[in-house]
Amino acid sequence: MEDPQGHSQPEPPTSPTSHSQSQCTSTTCAKCGGPTSFPPPPQGSWSEVSPPPVYRPIRAPAINLPPANQSQAIMLAPVPQRRSVPVVSPPYEFQPPSKKIQSPDDIRRFHDSESGKNFIGFVVALSEAIRSRKLSDPCHVSDTVSSIVSTLETLIQWIEEIPPLQQAARYGNVSYRTWHGRLEETCESMMLRFLPEELTTAMVEIVPYFMDSFGNSSRIDYGTGHETNFAAWLYCLARMGILKEEDYQAVVARVFVKYLELMRKLQLVYCLEPAGSHGVWGLDDYHFLPFIFGSSQLIDHKYMKPKSIHNDDILENFSREFMYLSCIAFIKKVKKGPFSEHSPMLDDISGVPNWNKVNSGMLKMYKAEVLEKVPIMQHFLFGWLIKWISLRVRCFSFESDL
């Protein structure tokens, strides 16, 4: 289009909303270009949430530079210690869990409580259960563990049945909402696979943790908060005695490995946005726990040191056996450029002399950078299995002691 002087003028931009909606109604497979037999995802909820963006938004990192005093505080913090999970007994008081954390004071209250100490202690116990062990090492696999692995395999199969749609947006494929919608419909029946009859009433409490373990269907994103919900779901099963301490090695080597496989496939196929990413100053865009478990696996290894992550031959030959190496290999696969530029924190950690120090540092960092962050923990749920102790109850207890 030209103005009266003959100069060219740019065409008016197309509305992003209308463009996204026209793309989203397509039932064309993004892989092969042919029609899909699966119906397009529902669009009625778009009036309440923003439609998927037609471009990848430029995300400002949560922190511009890692503050020196914050890093020093993490290094000086005590290493979280293992704790045995207290098993509940009748009468059961299961209840729908709800959000309680709104401020740093609430964060401190959670970590000072028995619930907070027991939860991080459970993560440490899982880490110790896989210490110096390969993923293929024999371990006790209970019927419960087998049922959970089978459930996760079903969720992986759904990704094949629900292909991504062609759309202008590079990130946030709306077919993920269809996948998540199917999860909502069948979640309760999945829980019945391993809940004994006397504990079926627990579904009201554990289903929300499970539902929040695989990302958010409105924002089409995933991050360490969702991963923590999966750990909380496993912790609830341990609280009910469904998972026992002899299952812990299999919980990491079988269950969590399958969960990691599922989440990586969801990330790649549906292009999930990283939720709350710290940019290059974060450990990873999506995960934290596999670095804890993976560093524990490599403790006292004769040949592999933290600096071994820079050896591509080691990554290729041993990433199937060691979770930490698998994480590094996956990052190098999906990110371009020098490793020291896109993952400077992991690059710095590779200079640590041994895996023991890496593992203890990862545990302290997980507590500080995930479990003590209000933007992440404001979505954490509290019910009867993971209790929230109100300030009023604590004050009453203090006055009673006086």
Furnish the topology, listing elements before pairings.
Blueprint: H1 16-24, H2 68-76, E1 98-99, H3 104-112, H4 114-129, H5 143-161, H6 175-191, H7 203-211, E2 221-222, H8 224-239, H9 248-270, E3 273-274, H10 289-297, H11 312-318, H12 323-334, H13 339-342, H14 344-349, H15 355-371, H16 374-377, E4 381-382, H17 391-401
Parallel strand pairs: 2-3
Antiparallel strand pairs: 1-4
Helix pairs in contact: 4-9, 5-9, 6-7, 7-8, 10-12, 10-15, 11-12
Distance between the termini: 82 Å
Element order, helices and strands?
HHEHHHHHEHHEHHHHHHHEH
Shape: globular
Share of helix among residues?
Answer: 40-55%
| Largest sheet data | 2 strands, antiparallel
The number of strands is: 4
Unreliably modeled segments: 10-26, 44-67, 393-402
Radius of gyration: 23 Å
What structural category do the secondary elements indicate?
mainly alpha
Briefly summarize what is shown:
With 402 residues, the chain is mostly helical. The protein has helices at residues 16-24, 68-76, 104-112, 114-129, 143-161, 175-191, 203-211, 224-239, 248-270, 289-297, 312-318, 323-334, 339-342, 344-349, 355-371, 374-377, 391-401, and strands at residues 98-99, 221-222, 273-274, 381-382.
